[in-house]
Write a structure and sequence with these properties.
The structure is a single chain. The protein is α/β, with parallel strands linked by helices. The protein is 33% helix and 19% strand. The protein is built from 9 helices and 9 strands. Strands 1-2-3-4-5-7-8-9 form an 8-stranded parallel beta barrel, surrounded by 4 helices. Helix 7 links the parallel strand 7 and strand 8. Helix 5 packs parallel to helix 6. The chain starts with a helix and ends in a 10-residue tail after the last helix.
């Protein structure tokens, strides 16, 4: 589903639920776990230096094809890459139409991608918030003009780590950013089954499109846990309340 179609369905309140994305799938069993527990999107890491769940291009293709055959979980390519050509190649080989730029790629990079990837590709640019400040703040308008379809707000750790930090954002800081956006946004950053109320105003925002979780979806060993995923989804109203089997 393209972001335009998803947005119209969401705004019309026809029963479509916001996006519920779980990041860091590494095996087909992870995809199956996400599907069984109500997640609708799987983040596949590629070209993420030192990323413990980073995949080879062939692995991205294999997992994306499993998503397609399984039919309920959309694969997302999540990358720090800064070159359009390799990104386009992986997207095409894997048949992926959701691209998450999870680093400090410039608006020019988004512009180059917008003119080179499939028109169906949804470009999601991550915005990093650290100590109450959005590091990409001065470039928000430039990102939108370049062809960004959706933003994802995430926390950056005090050590400079981006992505899967488990750190929570301050809702006040989030609102300060989203009020400056014209495009839809997703929320990440330490979201779990116990902090929905903290972000209820964010979730009620007309441009809110869903959440992205990683740490809260995993057990103590770091493996995806279906019950934890379902618990987060239920708490945020993204999946029906039910027992994970």
């Amino acid at each position: 589903m393209t972001v335009e179609k998803f947005s119209s369905f969401h705004m019309e309140n026809d029963g479509a639920r916001p996006l519920f994305k779980v990041c860091g799938a590494m095996e087909t069993a992870d995809i199956d776990c996400m599907s069984a527990s109500g997640a609708g999107a799987a983040g596949l890491w590629w070209e993420i230096p030192e990323g413990q769940r980073a995949l080879l291009p062939t692995e991205v293709v294999r997992l994306a094809h499993h998503c397609h055959s399984q039919g309920t979980v959309d694969p997302w390519l999540v990358t720090f890459a800064h070159e359009p050509a390799p990104i386009r190649r992986v997207l095409e080989e894997a048949g992926i139409t959701w691209l998450q730029l999870h680093a400090f790629q410039a608006p020019r990079m988004v512009d180059l991608l917008r003119t080179s990837v499939s028109a169906e590709t949804v470009i999601v640019k991550v915005l990093h918030i650290s100590d109450g400040k959005c590091l990409e703040g001065p470039l928000l308008g430039a990102y939108e003009r370049a062809g960004t379809d959706m933003f994802l707000l995430d926390a950056m750790s005090s050590s400079g780590q981006v992505g899967s930090t488990g750190n929570s954002l301050d809702p006040i800081d989030v609102l300060a950013v989203v009020e400056r956006l014209e495009h839809p946004f997703l929320l990440a950053g330490g979201l779990n089954a116990n902090n929905f109320e903290d972000f209820s105003l964010i979730a009620a925002h007309p441009r809110f499109m869903g959440i992205d979780v990683d740490t809260a979806a995993r057990d103590q060993s770091g493996s995806l846990d279906g019950r934890r995923i379902a618990s987060v989804g239920s708490a945020w109203g993204l999946v029906p309340e039910r027992t994970y089997l």
